[in-house]
Amino acid sequence: MTIRFNTAMRDAMVTALTNAIGGYTLSIYTGSQPATANDAATGTKLVDITINGFNTPPVSGSATLNTSTPNTGTAVATGTAGWGRIVGGVGERIDGTVGTSGTDFTINSTSITNGATVTLTAMTVTQPAS
């Protein structure tokens, strides 16, 4: 059996999640993403970016990153971005891919230099219908 959510429920779930992670930190690391978000971070931390929030209300179970205020951070190391982790609250974590397109967390460049500004340019949170 498959549980199915209507659009109103999907939008409510996305609203709850995006409200929770607005203000959390996205840390970008070198190397490969751990097997699960419960595992310790791997690689070198390159940058921390505070997530300013999402466009509301969600549409059909999806919300996009609000970029009217840039979501930026200053790099603390030099390397190639491999993956990212959102951390906040009491240990909540969301892991995902990082790149300049077609990834969970889209940034302006994957080649990061210590002291440079890194911008989170896009991110979408989606709750599927089933």
Describe, in short, the structure shown:
The chain is mainly beta and 130 residues long. 12% of the residues lie in helices and 37% in strands.
Q: What labels would you give this structure?
A:
130 residues, seven-stranded mixed beta sheet, single chain, mainly beta, globular
Explained architecture:
The chain is mainly beta. Helices cover 12% and strands 37% of the residues. It contains 1 helix and 11 strands. The protein has one helix at 7-21, and strands at residues 25-29, 45-50, 62-64, 71-74, 79-80, 83-88, 92-99, 105-107, 111-112, 117-122, 124-126. A hairpin with a 3-residue loop joins strand 6 (83-88) and strand 7. The radius of gyration is 15 Å and the shape is globular. The model has no long low-confidence stretch (mean pLDDT 96).
